Amino acid sequence: MTVPQKQLPHVPPFMEPKTQPPRKNGVDTRGMLSIVTMLVSLAALTVSMLGAAKLVFAVFDDGLENSLDGLFVKVVVLGLAFFFGWGVGLASIRGFGNLVYPMVVNMYAWACLVAVSGLYLKVIQKLYMQQYDALRFWAYLIILLGGLFVLICLHLLVENHDLRPFAIPLLIISVLQLFVIVYRYVFTTDANGWLVVSDFVIFFVMISISALMLTHIGILSPLRGWIDAIFVKNGNSGNGKHPG
Question: Which of 19, 80, 134, 231 is the S-S candidate for 236 at Cβ 3.0 to 4.6 Å?
Fold first, then answer.
């Protein structure tokens, strides 16, 4: 005869304590850096462009006699401010994935195109009047190239930025300059024929750069690839973007 066994009291299984996710300190470091670098870059680019505009007006209004003193120092200071803002902006867009700053840079690029177009028209006027010397001519050419250089630098800041629409106004102004050249040296009698070289140099430089921008043959691709490789190598890319 078997003796019935007593049932053991029901013991619940061992319960592991719930693990709580680590608390966040409430500060989005990436977003904060994205905003701060955007503001710093925007301030530096704005200051450099305003300073460059003042220098250009001085060259066109007073000639170079009153601006030769310390001109090199002014250019170096403006260049330093611009490249500092450009580098910080590159970190903000590519490093911290800022989504707002590319739109601001695009507006700055269009403003730069308007400025270059205005300078181009002013240079055409100066060439038509033929009241310039070799020093002023080279100053006009350097100013135009400097404006185009700034435009290209802003273009490189933004990923997948299309430079072709920016070439259309420059091409239109180049055609206008061609008409002015023909009228100046064919339909007027007081033109200095030797100065046609200056007109041709400006025309061919601007039409060549505009054509390269329009054809989009990838001249800037190695430089853009080098910039992309820097941030991909460091684990940063525009894919992990932040709206700030």
Answer: 231
Phi, psi of 94 (to 5 degrees): -85, -40
Contact present, 187 and 234 (Cβ < 8 Å) = no
Distance (Å, rounded) from C-alpha 118 to C-alpha 163?
19
pTM for this model (two decimals): 0.79
Alpha-carbon span 165 to 92, nearest angstrom: 25
Residues 206/120, Cβ–Cβ less than 8 Å: yes
**End-to-end CA distance of the chain, in Å?**
83
Q: What is the CB-side half-sphere exposure of residue 59 using CA atoms within 13 A?
A: 26
pLDDT digits (tens, 9 = 90+) for 82-126: 999 999 999 999 888 888 999 999 999 999 999 999 999 999 999
Helices 164-186 and 101-129, packing angle to 10 deg: 10
Amino acid at residue number 55: L
